[in-house]
């Protein structure tokens, strides 16, 4: 990505604005394999699913109480004075540590089934079209993959769709509240994608869809970028 485009992604991701929907790499696909990357929260969905999931499982009152408890950390995170992953893990631990994995996964399945309306129709149609063309497709999310994957169960029955999210630690069948992987945010998104590639980067023509600062590096990594495309 040239400096002009890189600066635009950085500025717009921070300020919440828009840049042109399609910034294509020169020469199009050029015979390379198509790899298409979708962010989940805010890009394929209408809002953040972490808060929505917690509220679904614990109700509004307990959700508000839990977030108020960690308000200082959340404020410092917004001011870039506290690590994003650490604040997120504290919240996740507060609400889910000690829950059996079976119960947690059942909550994830019910949440996805009851909240299909969170998916943006245009985003879902674009993802389906990408799969129909034979492209390799990944949903790359900072959210916990246990509740991201069930949103795409029907699609995965017909297509090979990779869900790349933050993974949680489980010990003796119970959720510990800690993350097994790094929070799949920012540079980690690119690291996780690269770990799944079977060929060198130049083998692929990469298209990425994102909507926030957490997608900056993934957008920069791509040949073709779409920022807040489905609104």
Query: What is the beta-strand fraction?
Result: 15-25%
Unreliable segments of 5+ consecutive residues:
1-8, 12-28
Order of helices and strands: HEHHHHHEHHEEEHEHE
By CATH, the topology is: Rossmann fold
The named CATH superfamily:
HAD superfamily/HAD-like
Number of strands: 7
What is the CATH architecture annotation?
A: 3-Layer(aba) Sandwich
Question: What average pLDDT do the residues reach?
Answer: 89
Percent of residues in helical segments?
40-55%
Kindly provide the radius of gyration, computed on alpha-carbon positions and rounded to a whole number of angstroms.
18 Å
**How many helices in DSSP terms?**
10
Structural class assignment: alpha/beta
Q: Biggest β-sheet, characterized?
A: 5 strands, parallel
Distance between the termini: 24 Å
How many separate structural domains? 1
Q: Rough shape?
A: globular
Widest sheet: strand ordering: 3-2-1-6-7
- CATH class group: Alpha Beta
List the helices and strands and how they pair.
Elements: H1 3-15, E1 33-39, H2 49-69, H3 71-78, H4 84-96, H5 101-114, H6 121-132, E2 136-144, H7 145-148, H8 153-156, E3 161-166, E4 168-171, E5 174-179, H9 187-196, E6 204-210, H10 216-221, E7 224-227
Parallel strand pairs: 1-2, 1-6, 2-3, 6-7
Antiparallel strand pairs: 4-5
């Amino acid at each position: 990505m040239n400096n002009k485009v890189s600066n635009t992604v950085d500025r717009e991701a921070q300020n919440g604005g828009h840049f042109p929907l399609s910034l294509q790499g020169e020469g199009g696909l050029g015979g390379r394999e198509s790899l298409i990357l979708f962010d989940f929260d805010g890009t394929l969905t209408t809002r953040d699913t972490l808060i929505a999931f917690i509220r679904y499982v614990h109700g509004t009152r307990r959700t508000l109480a839990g977030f108020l408890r960690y308000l200082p950390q959340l404020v410092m995170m917004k001011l870039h004075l506290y690590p994003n992953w650490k604040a997120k893990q504290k919240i996740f631990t507060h609400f889910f540590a000690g829950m059996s994995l079976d119960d947690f996964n059942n909550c994830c399945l019910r949440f996805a089934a009851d909240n299909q309306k969170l998916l943006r129709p245009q985003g879902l149609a674009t993802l389906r079209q990408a799969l129909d063309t034979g492209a390799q497709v990944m949903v790359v999310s900072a959210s916990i993959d246990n509740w991201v994957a069930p949103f795409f169960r029907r699609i995965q029955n017909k297509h090979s769709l990779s869900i790349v999210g933050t993974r949680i630690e489980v010990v003796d069948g119970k959720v510990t509240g800690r993350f097994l992987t790094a929070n799949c945010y920012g540079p980690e998104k690119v690291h996780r994608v690269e770990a799944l590639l079977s060929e060198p980067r130049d083998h692929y023509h990469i298209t990425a869809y994102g909507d926030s600062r957490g997608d900056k590096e993934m957008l920069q990594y791509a040949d073709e970028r779409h920022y807040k495309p489905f609104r």
